C-alpha cells in the first residue's frame, strides 16, 4: 500500500467516525431543527416516496449506450486504460427536478435537502459519496435564508473558475432546464458559483441571464437557503459522460450558423501563457507544425464567440491538453485533433468531444516514465516534452492539401 493509499484510509476512517458522531444530533428532530441539519436518510428523486416529499423529476434525455472510437496513440504499447474504460459507455438519463420547500447548502457543488430534511444525493455531488457526504460531517449549518418564489440552481462542481467545466458541465445544465420547458428568464432567483470571469459573463448573457441582476445569487460554500420551490438540473457523477444533447446545446448557443465551407485552418493552441502543462520544446514543435500549415493561436483575450468561430474554421487542431480545447465543441465535421499529454495527465475530456462529433483524435504522450496501468491521472501540473518523431508521424496522417 502506498503512502497516498494509507493517508486516504486514515482520512476515510476519520470521516466515518465524524459522521457517526453527529448522527445522534441528526436523529433528534428538535435538535436537528435547531441546528438546521439534514436527517440521516437520503431520498432519490426517482423513489416512489419522492412525490409525497414534494419532489417532481421531469425527464429530458433517455439513457443511451454508445461505443466511442478509441484515439490513436503512436509510440505507446497500447491505448491507455483510461480511454479503453470509456470506450463503451452509457450516458445516464438526464432530468430536471423541482422540489417544494427545499433547502440548498452551498458547499462544493451544493447539497439539496427535501422538505422533510432528507438529502437528495443525485443532486448533491460529493467526492466521498452520499454515505459520507460532507453535509453529514457538520455539527450545525447556518440559519437558512428564505428565497421566495421559484429558484434555479446552476451551482456546478469545478465550474466556478474553469473554462472547461463551465462550458461542458454548467452551460448544459442550464440547457437541461430550458429543454425541460423552463424559461430561464422566469426564475425569481438563480444560484451560481462563479468569479465573474469574462467567459462566464458572456455565457450568462447568451442564456438570457443578466449577470448584474439582483436575482443572480453568487453562492459561497457556507450559504444556506430555504426555497419555496427549487429547480435543479441533474448532475453528472462522471464528467467524461457528457451526452449528445448537452454538447449540441452549447454548440448552438455560440455557433448558431454553420461556418463558410471555404474557410479551413490548422490551429496550434499554445499554453505558453499558462503556469503549467506547457510544451517545453515548443520552439521545435512549432517549426514542425508550420511546415504542415499550422498557425499558432492564444485563446486568452478572445471572447467565447470568437473562439467558437475560430474552431469552426479549423480542419485540424493541435496542442497540449487544456480547458481551451473544450472549444472542439464548435469544430466542423472532419476536423482532426492531435492532443499532447504529460505522462501523468492523460485524460479523456477532449477526446470525448471528438468522439461525439466524429473527429479523429490522436493522443501524443510526452517523454517521461509512465504511471502504472490503471493509476488515476494525478500530474495535472506536469509540463510536456514532446517526441518530434511521434508528432511527425501524426502529422503525416493529415490531408496534404494544406501544407
Automatic annotation (TrEMBL):
Keywords: Glycoprotein, Glycosyltransferase, Transferase. The keyword Transit peptide does not apply. Residues 163-338 form the Glycosyltransferase 61 catalytic domain. Pfam families: Glyco_transf_61 (PF04577). The keyword Cell membrane does not apply. It comes from the Bacteria. GO terms for molecular function: glycosyltransferase activity. This is Glycosyltransferase 61 catalytic domain-containing protein. It comes from Termitidicoccus mucosus.
Amino acid at each position: 500500500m502506498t503512502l497516498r493509499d494509507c493517508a486516504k484510509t486514515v482520512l476515510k476512517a476519520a470521516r466515518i467516525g465524524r459522521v457517526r458522531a453527529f448522527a445522534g444530533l441528526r436523529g433528534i428532530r428538535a435538535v436537528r431543527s435547531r441546528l438546521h441539519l439534514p436527517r440521516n436518510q437520503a431520498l432519490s428523486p426517482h423513489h416512489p416516496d419522492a412525490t409525497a416529499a414534494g419532489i417532481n423529476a421531469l425527464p429530458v434525455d433517455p439513457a443511451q449506450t454508445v461505443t466511442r472510437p478509441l484515439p490513436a496513440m503512436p509510440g505507446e504499447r497500447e491505448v491507455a486504460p483510461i480511454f479503453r474504460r470509456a470506450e463503451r459507455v452509457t450516458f445516464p438519463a438526464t432530468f430536471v427536478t423541482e422540489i417544494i420547500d427545499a433547502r440548498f447548502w452551498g458547499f462544493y457543488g451544493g447539497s439539496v435537502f427535501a422538505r422533510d430534511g432528507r438529502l437528495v444525493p443525485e443532486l448533491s455531488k460529493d467526492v466521498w459519496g452520499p454515505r459520507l457526504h460532507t453535509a453529514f460531517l457538520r455539527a450545525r449549518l447556518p440559519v437558512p435564508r428564505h428565497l421566495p418564489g421559484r429558484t434555479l440552481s446552476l451551482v456546478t462542481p469545478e465550474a466556478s473558475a474553469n473554462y472547461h467545466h463551465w462550458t461542458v458541465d454548467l452551460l448544459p445544465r442550464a440547457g437541461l432546464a430550458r429543454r425541460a420547458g423552463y424559461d430561464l428568464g422566469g426564475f425569481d432567483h438563480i444560484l451560481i458559483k462563479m468569479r465573474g470571469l469574462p467567459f462566464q459573463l458572456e455565457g450568462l448573457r447568451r442564456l438570457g441571464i443578466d449577470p448584474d441582476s439582483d436575482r443572480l445569487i453568487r453562492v459561497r460554500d457556507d450559504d444556506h437557503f430555504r426555497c419555496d420551490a427549487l429547480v435543479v438540473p441533474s448532475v453528472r457523477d462522471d464528467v467524461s459522460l457528457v451526452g449528445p444533447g448537452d454538447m449540441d446545446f452549447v454548440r448552438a448557443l455560440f455557433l448558431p450558423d454553420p461556418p463558410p465551407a471555404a474557410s479551413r485552418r490548422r490551429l496550434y493552441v499554445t499554453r505558453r501563457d499558462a503556469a503549467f502543462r506547457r510544451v517545453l520544446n515548443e520552439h521545435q514543435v512549432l517549426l514542425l507544425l508550420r511546415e504542415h500549415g499550422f498557425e499558432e493561436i492564444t485563446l486568452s483575450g478572445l471572447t467565447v464567440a470568437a473562439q467558437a468561430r475560430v474552431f469552426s474554421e479549423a480542419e485540424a487542431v493541435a496542442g497540449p491538453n487544456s480547458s481551451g480545447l473544450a472549444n472542439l465543441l464548435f469544430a466542423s465535421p472532419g476536423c482532426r485533433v492531435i492532443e499532447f499529454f504529460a505522462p501523468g495527465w492523460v485524460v479523456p475530456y477532449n477526446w470525448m468531444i471528438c468522439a461525439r462529433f466524429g473527429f479523429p483524435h490522436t493522443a501524443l504522450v510526452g517523454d517521461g516514465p509512465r504511471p502504472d496501468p490503471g493509476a488515476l491521472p494525478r500530474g495535472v501540473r506536469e509540463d510536456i516534452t514532446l517526441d518530434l518523431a511521434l508528432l511527425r508521424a501524426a502529422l503525416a496522417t493529415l490531408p496534404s492539401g494544406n501544407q
